Amino acid sequence: MDTLFEPVAWYDIVGQMRRALCVVELMRTFIPFLLFRKPSKAYPTVLEYARKIKAELPKEGKLGVAGFCWGGWPSTKLCTETATQGGGGNLIDAQFTAHPSFISKDMVVEAVTKHKVPYALALGSKDHAFKKSVAEETEAEIREKTGSKGTGEGGYVWDFKFYEDCGHGFAVRAAPGNKVETQGSEDAADQAIGWFKKHLS
Q1: Domains (ranges, CATH) in the chain?
Q2: What is the pLDDT of residue 1?
């Protein structure tokens, strides 16, 4: 991916050939991955595992979940689940996601509003998978639906933070040598740690 997105002059034949080879390699690995390992296909296993973990916790134990990129879909979806199938009680007590992929505005709205699970999002302003503009629309819809600012009014808690000039993947894999993304990844880690300390303690 780094080679593919690296700027190359149109007349740089070797650079363009390197890019073409990257496209072929990505198609060979990424297309089967998308077909057979989409988050929705893996989700039943993730849900079963999360419910088993929740069942093993002490009575007052809390379960937090973090999802990065591909993991943002299941971590968001888990917010809408109950601790047992057909039962009651939240499965998740706090959620954090950074640069999620495959999620939609409706998914996030439901994750925040259905069981009032504290929901945190770290997103780079240059993210192509879940664009900043969509995240801003999502937050506006949540505010309208809940009548809350996300700071606890009516039990609704969320925190959307935008990291300027950071791209997709910055929180776990900042672009080498990019000081802005490196700082963003450190700040996103602090955001996650602070979120879980606040909501799981």
Answers
A1: 1-36 (no CATH), 40-200 (3.40.50.1820)
A2: 66
